[in-house]
Write a structure and sequence with these properties.
By secondary structure, the protein is α/β, with parallel strands linked by helices. It is built from five helices and five strands.
Length: 138
């Protein structure tokens, strides 16, 4: 089993990282750090440049998260998946037999999340494994 974390260096994700490290350490399980890198559009040179920029941002974000997990002694693996964040996390959870998916929230209201389709909102409705949604603020 494992713990899967959606990570993008947003304030909610930074706090969720701390919680995910605690959960992984408590259960003695690896932490899979996942970045959904689906770029808008789909064709042409502009798409390729945008896609690579998103993937580079993911590599940078995940490297910072790995440092934090290493300091806590939690084994990690990173994945940059060419899917939307919600789909990337659902696929990673299935692939790695996740005990839980951990995500941070942006502080949006439940109505706004439902209307705009936030990643935590999608996961809460689609995930077959528990989802731990960590608020941005204490």
């Amino acid at each position: 089993m494992s713990v899967v974390l959606g990570y993008d260096e947003s304030p909610g994700a930074v706090r969720a990282l701390r919680v995910a490290i605690e959960v992984a350490a408590a259960f003695g399980e690896p932490l899979f750090l996942v970045f959904g890198a689906a770029a808008p559009g789909g064709l042409g040179e502009e798409y390729r440049a945008h896609h690579e920029a998103i993937r580079q941002a993911g590599r940078t974000a995940l490297a910072h998260a790995v440092e934090s997990a290493d300091e806590a002694g939690v084994p990690t693996a990173v994945e940059i998946v060419d899917e939307t964040p919600a789909q990337a996390l659902l696929e990673a959870a299935e692939r790695h037999r996740a005990r839980v998916i951990v995500v941070g929230s942006w502080g949006d209201s439940p109505l706004r999340g439902a209307l705009l389709g936030s990643t935590p909102h999608k996961l809460l409705h689609l995930s077959p494994v528990p989802v731990l949604c960590v608020p941005t603020q204490d």
